Amino acid sequence: MQNKIVVVKLTGKIFDEKELIGKYVELFEKLTNKYHLVVVTGGGKKAREYIEIARNLGVSSNYWLDLIGIMASRLNAYLLISKLYPKAYYKPVENLEELHNAVLSNKIVFVGGLIPGQSTAAVAVEVSEALSVNKLIMVSAVDHVYERDPMKYANAKKYTEIEASKLKKIIEQQILPGEYALIDVKALDLAIRSKITIYITYYREPENILKILNGENPGTIIYPR
Amino acid sequence: MQNKIVVVKLTGKIFDEKELIGKYVELFEKLTNKYHLVVVTGGGKKAREYIEIARNLGVSSNYWLDLIGIMASRLNAYLLISKLYPKAYYKPVENLEELHNAVLSNKIVFVGGLIPGQSTAAVAVEVSEALSVNKLIMVSAVDHVYERDPMKYANAKKYTEIEASKLKKIIEQQILPGEYALIDVKALDLAIRSKITIYITYYREPENILKILNGENPGTIIYPR
Amino acid sequence: MQNKIVVVKLTGKIFDEKELIGKYVELFEKLTNKYHLVVVTGGGKKAREYIEIARNLGVSSNYWLDLIGIMASRLNAYLLISKLYPKAYYKPVENLEELHNAVLSNKIVFVGGLIPGQSTAAVAVEVSEALSVNKLIMVSAVDHVYERDPMKYANAKKYTEIEASKLKKIIEQQILPGEYALIDVKALDLAIRSKITIYITYYREPENILKILNGENPGTIIYPR
Amino acid sequence: MQNKIVVVKLTGKIFDEKELIGKYVELFEKLTNKYHLVVVTGGGKKAREYIEIARNLGVSSNYWLDLIGIMASRLNAYLLISKLYPKAYYKPVENLEELHNAVLSNKIVFVGGLIPGQSTAAVAVEVSEALSVNKLIMVSAVDHVYERDPMKYANAKKYTEIEASKLKKIIEQQILPGEYALIDVKALDLAIRSKITIYITYYREPENILKILNGENPGTIIYPR
Amino acid sequence: MQNKIVVVKLTGKIFDEKELIGKYVELFEKLTNKYHLVVVTGGGKKAREYIEIARNLGVSSNYWLDLIGIMASRLNAYLLISKLYPKAYYKPVENLEELHNAVLSNKIVFVGGLIPGQSTAAVAVEVSEALSVNKLIMVSAVDHVYERDPMKYANAKKYTEIEASKLKKIIEQQILPGEYALIDVKALDLAIRSKITIYITYYREPENILKILNGENPGTIIYPR
Amino acid sequence: MQNKIVVVKLTGKIFDEKELIGKYVELFEKLTNKYHLVVVTGGGKKAREYIEIARNLGVSSNYWLDLIGIMASRLNAYLLISKLYPKAYYKPVENLEELHNAVLSNKIVFVGGLIPGQSTAAVAVEVSEALSVNKLIMVSAVDHVYERDPMKYANAKKYTEIEASKLKKIIEQQILPGEYALIDVKALDLAIRSKITIYITYYREPENILKILNGENPGTIIYPR
Prior knowledge:
7-stranded mixed beta sheet, alpha/beta
């Protein structure tokens, strides 16, 4: 009997804080008895450092800069795999075919970036779609979806739920600065077309994942319509 | 000495008309002496028929429906390969790594769809980006970019050139109906970020490709800004 | 505990009739609880259409024409996979090594053509041999083995059982016209050498598969001697 | 400018006689300047020894016995590669897709067995078909095609040329004992359908390959009709 | 519930004696119910014969000579697989990634050589390290570790246990002649760094494997310090 | 006509100093016209940081820690590839088979670590052996081979040439502390067996590579005996 698949996307920020990684590892170890986890890892600070070195060398191609970011996100995945093996599948998945194969193992499956020109948020929605999963937990650098950058606007409106199409419009109007961006239009479009509900939760609160699995809403729910 | 890479995207419609396929094959055979061709093939009518059969079976997952469309676009690629081999690389490329490898052969390289959730138009821009090519020829079902559907509005404004960001807005406002859509936002975003100029040309006029290579503009130029 | 492997070969004709595909899908869904199904899919009308397009382009190489037919048979496999996933292995198997790997998943495994110059009937026998299976169900365009083409000779002798070596001679004497041919010498030779009994059954009667599994003989049994 | 492809099939017997291997290596080194060689290697005595060990262990599956023979034929290929590298492609080709890829290297390409249930003679014809080559040199244990086994019948009729369809009939009538069989029906069928002329030559006379390339006929020509 | 992984290394000598192979096969069939076996196969006499042929051809590169030995060790693995399938994974593992994948099957996994310049003894330790196994059974041509070659020195000191670092020194001082060498420095270094205890046992006594699994010491224990 | 292969091993330290990377890139771009470069990249500071994170998570397996280091060394390779593409092969080579394939492209080929339990110095010797190259340039953190750590012993004896077997003894006697170690016994053993001369040169002086190619000796020559 296979456990139910749960897709979790981890912001790369987690890999910048050693204690946090440990907490997520513990959580995954606990959850793996009840759920079949598929975890998408972002890049974080080290990814940006590598990209910065390439830029300094004179690399301007977005393809190659993205590829370096993807490789760094996979290295983050390896960090978690190295600790969770043999409960984790032995390598980060590199494309959707490999995803289907890895999932057959019933192990925790890790996925980094997949393809240049695509955010790891979009990867996470794509992974959910490929596996016919309709709930996606996005562990993010922000605790909620806001109408504006909460760092700049103290009274920015905070959403506990929002429709994907509305969030799309907010993003398209570029009200949100790049650094704040927690999700992109591509990811939202895929979520809408495949009716995937997204749960945004704050990365410093790993236990929120449990809450979401128990039906609570500690952050923002993005409805696929 | 390697020839200059030229990326061409073929609408699937070409594969619905036997004489047209033959003309494009002839053209590619001629061009291959001067240019290193990379050709992205769309799906066309047969792709839609296969997808329709799957839908009739009760398949609702966009992932699987897209995948079937991708496989059909690769079968289209095989048609051209079977005729052009050994001037063509022996199989359709299935991801960007394989693209880099295939290009080393100096043969005509064919690419079908790559990944569910992505149009073959976006594939063509991605391929251009991966190969650092800044001009992309899109052989389309329409002869130009119009402000509205020319089938419905006889006096729809016709563009001989347009900025990608402007076209993006037209698309986002959904003025263009789905069937007419010749390009999507994702493709335009990639084109802008990587400064790829797109040449739209009518699929019933294969010789337009030569004109574009000679600096003429028989259709619409989409500037990456 | 693994279920017993059952190899079924489906004539491509099934894919030309939408309701039939649905019935086979239903049947496979039901059988998968008791049997480990390995299903070989033929090409059918669409395969011939693609091959025809290639021929029109001037392709005369049997290698490439066969390869296009193989790709079309794999697209047929994808139709069934898209409906049966996750009960089906996620892709059509492309060679015998991949077959062994796919079978480890305990999912329904689909196989299209494998290699130019070989019928899907021969593929089905090869698959049976590779998996040490000694019974093969061939869902065919004809309901029985006949001594001559039953379409032309109303009183053609109908076999309910026949020895493979005898059928081989009938085929070698070319009494059977190409279109009628339900099996070829290569397939029979493999069946004989590996003692695989073949059950011919009519494609319009999916329930015959159940009958055969229950020990009945609704068509023709070809004994491997 | 690529050299013309020449396909040569080597009987496994060559690998049983050390000096002979050396002579063929020398020949290939010389020929590689003018021709693009693709060489199919048979199994020979060691292959039979390995198969014998498996049989002694109780293995009766033809699939596995053939697979062991294939692996041994690839080891023979490695012997030649180890000596000819870097003039040879770095590994034996394992399927027809890999063949197309290997041929792009312009190196001498070696192929062992490909798939259980198929002789290396059939492999050689298949390789010729895949590469659109219409002449195939088969270096054989016998110097000519005979009507009966020349070992047993001193006055057996010797052919300097024969039609494939006629040879097929001789083989089907089982006049030729297994050990003598230099080619099988499957290989002849493929040769006929793809119009491949086969040149039989004696394995103890490596220089015959040169003669055949120069238009002479030191053995038997099998015409594809 | 997965069985505990046990890594066994078989000297190639086993493959030179037909009855012995059979006994090991029987043993593995019995053990597979209680243990998850991973078996590393050496090369033996046939490997040396192949290498000898290559040398006679004039091959001096250690890379290629080793590669031929590796291929022969994989053929040995195929002998065991052909008998044990489907209880055995369907092919010899060729690198450590494939090892992790094969182990997911819960079948008996066979490994031949992995990479030129590395003994199969070192492979066995590497496999143990990759799978976090801390006991390794080495079925060897000698029954114990001796201080000198017991063939030459009748009263050579025999160890029932020894520290890896001490054995390393004995080997480095070249007291042991090449033919006698049962383990190399590289393997011992890996064993020490990953705390893997090695059990040496005589290849003519297959039942010793059972003894070791039951906590006895029929040969020499090499402690990883 | 192919250029002569030159194998260069880069200490990971280069990737810790941005200007240095740029200088090596420039040098490689210049050299690629005359030489066919194969470059092995070490890990450096970032590799150690990743390994440190894993250790903090509680990972003690050397296999996994090494694997993370290997992945980091490949990321370093990607930095150089992203700048040198299309003069560089499009990805770091992951095993020796892939190396042979990559070398066929005539591009600059990059290799990171290959397998846990092996230094990138040993990788570089192995790569040289696989390609039959008998000179290897090792760009190192130290400018020469010393008898003791020059940091601690101001008057440590400096070698401008040394025999591999002598250096091996120095290393085995552990006179050299870990941090100083520029090469290991495994690498020296491989160099000796395959007669590969190693040129040690200081990483802060990229132009030394040119000197070595011109027959000078700006560091230490290690002779393979």
